[in-house]
Amino acid sequence: MSAVAGTLLFSCTAHATIIHVSTSGSDQKDGSRWATAKRTIQAGINTASSGDEVWVAAGTYGERITHKSGVRLYGGFKGDEKTRDQRNFLTNISKIDGQKLGAVVTVRTGAALSTLIDGFTITNGIGASQGEVRYGGGVYALDACVTVENCVIASNNAGQGGGLYSNGEIVLKNNLFKENGSSTCVYGGGALLMFGPVAVQGNTFTSNRGTYGGALVLAYNSGEVSCNTFQANNSQVGGGIYNVGFRHPPIRQNTFKSNTGYFGAGVGCNGSNGDVTGNVFTSNSALLSGGALYLYNGATGTVSNNVITGCAGQCGFGGAIASNRANPTIVNNTMAGNTAAYGGGGVAFLEEGGGVLSSNIIAFCSSGVYGDYGTRPVLRTNSLYQNAGGNFCGVTPGPGNVLADPAFADRAAGDYRLQSISPCIDAATNADAPAVDFDGAPRPLDGDGSGDATADIGAFEAPGAVVAPDMNIGEVKSSTPDGELVGFKNVVVSASFAGLGFIYVQPADRSGGIRVDTTAAFAEGQVVNVMGHLRTVPETGERSVVPVAGSPVVVDGLSSSIIAEPVLMSHENLGGAAFGLQQGVTHSISLNNVGLLVNVWGRVTWVDTSGTSFTIWNGAVYTNAEVAVTDPDGNLGVRVKVAEGSSVPAVGYYVRLQGISSTVKNGTTSYPCVLMLGRYALLSL
Ligand SMILES: [Ca+2]
Fold first, then answer.
1. The CATH number of the domain covering residues in 473-554
2. Cα–Cα distance measured from residue 238 to residue 265, given in angstroms and rounded to the nearest whole number
3. Neighbours of 521 (CB within 10 A)
4. pLDDT tens across 546-588, in order?
5. What would the DSSP string read from start to end of 463-481?
6. What ranges do the domains of the chain cover?
7. Ion ligand 1 contact residues with beta carbon within 5 A
8. Fewest CB within 10 A of the end CB: N or C in the chain?
9. Smallest Cα–Cα separation from 214: which of 244, 194, 237?
């Protein structure tokens, strides 16, 4: 048995030798176990071959290391772990302190991307010298590839890449870059990435500083920069990110908050053509222009699906975006509450720039869109609202603008999605719109139920309108069980009792009506589509629809001129007999008409003391009491429930009134009842 176990152990360790390093170790030991750990990380690396792992226990290592291709360097161990997933790099801090003598980690030239640094704090580096300039204060990867994950890179500085320098392929994931760079760092306070494909994901860059790119410089890169947070970084151009060169990787789904700079406090793009998509820019402040974004020197690319709020061009132009001698395509962004000292609290086009500005919301800004002399941007289908200094200045507004409240879901809470009543829904230009919105939802969707899928203005696409199946109300009420999904198209709101929590709808041909449970405000006469689940109201026995989200929806294109017409109804016919699953009222043999808008008339014979209902009698005398039409209390005639705001007529008055044919119960017996409409529905005869 021991021979088998020995074989297994051998086969496991043959793939990757693990070398242990601890501050209580010795470089004279072999590093094969924690008990025989080496003392320096460099000794561990020197012992390792490509594919091997070096495990480093918590503690401060005052050394500068040269990393070897393919070796995987892990920090964050307590010093007794058997497996790597037992480590906790958040509590066990493996710190490499460069002591301001050079770069803390130098990645050997020619290293492969599998070369890994994971779970370390890298600090007090001043970079490696190239001539008179130092590069890569914390991590220096010249002509090498490297993967850096779960590291804290803090308080390093260099002229080029205060925290990190790379000119090859690089993966940066889940790192914290903090307080790197300084006023002496020219490019990339946090990191300078040149030429290589990059994957920069899930990192946080906080309080880094460089002249260009407070947190990050991207120069001639491909790849992607996504899901990072850039906060309180500072530079002259590109407080968060500075892009230079003819291309930069897409900048997607990042958060830029409270970054500062002279130009482009969030992002600065110098002649680059990459996309800036789906990011949140909050409270970034440029001393001059481009609170969130500054595009210049021939920059192109697409700026889309960004939510830009509270940004400022303090002493310049473009509170959200400034485009200076550039030609970007700026589409489907939401910009709210941004300010600029001069033109374009939202967007400014400067110095003969052009480009396209389509389908953006610019609201609650110090002003809207500004173009100085010689700029020729093409504008279309933007929504501008409550921009204090005016919506358009020096630009041609273009077609299809929505100059009305965009109806944000909850601006105070930072939710810039559109309410269903927003005029921005289905008002954008499909040809310009990205295929998905800020949330990744498909675009365009048919938000107004018109049958045409049209993009919405702004970063968010509202859900598609409910497309209801087209059923017959009478058939549904008689034959469809409770709980089933039903739908009615192009039905008229015949009565609205929003205060009571329901409305009634009926088709224009008055063939049947039904209650819909909703507290939303609908006007009588509106044409709507309804979809929801059927139920039977216990108090009345009526069938009713409990709508699904988004239903009922007011149908576009049909006007409220289609007024629901009442049916004249004698007392003997009111309510009607049972019809399948729809309960009837006692003594009635007529077709069931519960839910329909009706006209009834008679003399007031009884009024309740609370003023909420009364009974009218049309004078009919019944020789057979078994067919007498009575109210639930036995009075001849039918019960009327008074509309809110209506007065109750006195006993003896003759009245005609309009309302919904409903029912009222006494025990299990149903009686006809009319739900009176508003005050004008009651007429004295
Ligand atoms: Ca839409």
1. 2.40.50.140
2. 5
3. 9
4. 998 778 888 754 555 556 778 888 888 888 888 888 888 887 7
5. PPPP------HHHHHHHPP
6. 1-97, 124-249, 261-465, 473-554, 567-684
7. 426, 444-445, 447, 456
8. N
9. 237
Taking the mean position of all CA atoms in its chain, how far away is CA 363?
A: 18
Question: Rounded distance, CA 371 to CA 342, Å?
Answer: 11
The CA 472 to ligand 1 mean position distance, Å, reads 29
Nearest partner of 33 among 92, 103, 80, 84, judged by Cα: 80
Mean pLDDT of the chain: 92
Q: How does strand 613-617 pair with strand 553-554?
A: unpaired
Residues in contact with 1: Cβ distance below 8 Å, sequence separation at least 6, in sequence order: none
* Same CATH fold assignment for domains 473-554 and 567-684: yes
**pLDDT tens digits, one per residue of 439-490:** 999 999 998 877 789 999 999 999 887 666 789 999 999 999 999 989 998 8
How confident is the model over 212-223, as a mean pLDDT? 96
- CA 142 to mean position of chain CA atoms: 40
Distance 307 CA to ligand 1 centre (A): 18
Q: How far is the CA of 203 from the centre of ligand 1 (A)?
A: 34
CATH topology of domain 567-684: OB fold (Dihydrolipoamide Acetyltransferase, E2P) (2.40.50)
Ligand 1 centre from 438 Cα, in Å? 13
- Output the six-digit token pair for 19: 């070398």
> Which of 131-145, 267-281, 487-501, 668-682 shows the lowest mean pLDDT across its residues?
668-682
| Distance of alpha carbon 105 from alpha carbon 533, whole angstroms | 64
CA of 401 to the centre of ligand 1 (A): 15
What's the one-letter identity of residue 550?
G
Query: Measured between alpha carbons, how far is 506 from 498 in angstroms, rounded to an integer?
Result: 17
User: What's the longest Cα–Cα distance across the chain?
Assistant: 118
Tokens of 258: 């409270």
In the reported structure, the alpha carbon of residue 424 is separated from the centroid of ligand 1 by a whole-number distance in angstroms of 8
Q: For residues 512 and 521, what is the distance between their CA atoms, to the nearest angstrom?
A: 22
| Residues 211 and 186: beta-carbon distance below 8 Å | yes
Determine the residue type at 489.
K
Query: What is d(CA 472, CA 274) in angstroms, rounded to the nearest whole number?
Result: 54
Q: What long-range pairs does 585-592 form, CB within 8 A, spacing at least 24?
A: 585/663, 585/670, 585/671, 585/672, 586/669, 586/670, 586/671, 587/626, 587/627, 587/628, 587/629, 588/629, 588/672, 592/474, 592/477, 592/478
Ligand 1 centroid to Cα of residue 446, in Å, is 5
Cα(487) to centroid of ligand 1, in Å?
22
Ligand 1 centroid distance, CA of 444 (Å): 5
Work out the number of other CB atoms within 10 angstroms of the CB of residue 11. 9
Q: How far is the CA of 548 from the centre of ligand 1 (A)?
A: 19
